[in-house]
Amino acid sequence: MRNYKRKSDRGTKSVELMQRAADLVINENKSLRQVCRDYELSKTSLSRFIKRMKNDPVNLRFGYGSPRQIFNKEQEASLTEYLFKLAQIFHGIGPKEVRRMAYDCAIKYKISVPSTWHTNKMAGRDWMSAFLKRNTSLSIRKPEATSLSRATSFNKSNVQKFYTKLADVVDRFKFTASSMWNADETGVSTVTKPSKIVAAKGKRNVGSITSGERGTNITLLVAVSATGSSIPPMFIFPRKKFQDHFIRDGPTDCIGAGNSSGWITNDEFFLFMQHFIKHVRPSKEFPILLVLDNHSSHLSVPTLDLAKENGVVMLSFPPLCSHKLQPLDVSVYGPFKRYLSSAQDAWMRNNAGKNMTIYDIPGIVRTSLLLALTPSNIMSGFEKLAYFPSTNINLMTLILHLVT
Predict the structure, then answer these.
(1) Does residue 181 belong to any structural domain of this protein?
(2) Is 84 contained in some domain?
(3) pTM for this structure?
(4) Which end of the chain has less neighbouring CB within 10 Å, N or C?
(5) What is the pLDDT of residues 365-397, one digit of tens each?
């Protein structure tokens, strides 16, 4: 980051000194040139100050003005609070994500920003440097290494931190099983691994027809509660413009969206949060807990504001730990993928000679979800992971079991 160093002392004289010099010229009829020489002032600067003093003697200032600050103190305090909360729930973000969040905040507050902010869709490096200097409680920290693999990231320390935070949140808001939810995305491809079949014994090669060599992925978002209930899912298609007929055969009341990749982004998760709030109906008087992984798409300012306004308390898993700490991964997605594979095999047999497309997926997912999203499957995930405040499971025993 750049740190400008002054090359001269221009504009550094105090207002009091300039007033004394101006009084000598105005009231005591001293020579402007002589006063400037005695006080080591610029003749042009003193002349301009005297004019301003005659026109507006109340609001006197001298020197260079400070650069225009984008956010006021209250707005920066709000942004700082967001960053603190994100770090506390294992959602800590890097400098680039902070700069993107700052840009989102500026758009939200309708603040005029430099054109480069609009071009890059993020704040500049100089803003980031100045922001950290103004808010000394923040710093760029290097987290513990967690990128070696899921196995090395999933350790006793990380799991203990998560359960400690979970216990704090549950105790603070008095959450019960009915107010504890888990949301997660999973990919669904038009080509899946073929199921096992019965064939002649001793035959070296056994084949099975699939839709193609390489499939197209669709993202599926599901949310479930600790009491075994769920909301209609959301599909994200690899299409820039979503059409209602994409989900015509999908689960009842499901929703859809589209983008060029088919993966979840800030905009799609904001739509999902609106969909979630519509069906669960939380409020500030009756808040709910939403546990989810720490994907960057969950962190946009509009989504966080929407959650806060509607009483949705978001808690994230430590990095790369969701595969063993997430109820959906533990007890729902396994059965779902097995039912999905069988349903796709059946579809291929019933539609011989046709390739499965992304528009066939919602109808196939509908039957598979009905079989996988049973109350017993959903509840078993929360129970196995001791999410309930009253679960009769020794937490330390569970943690040791999970990490070994």
Answers:
(1) yes
(2) yes
(3) 0.69
(4) C
(5) 999 999 999 999 999 999 888 886 555 555 555
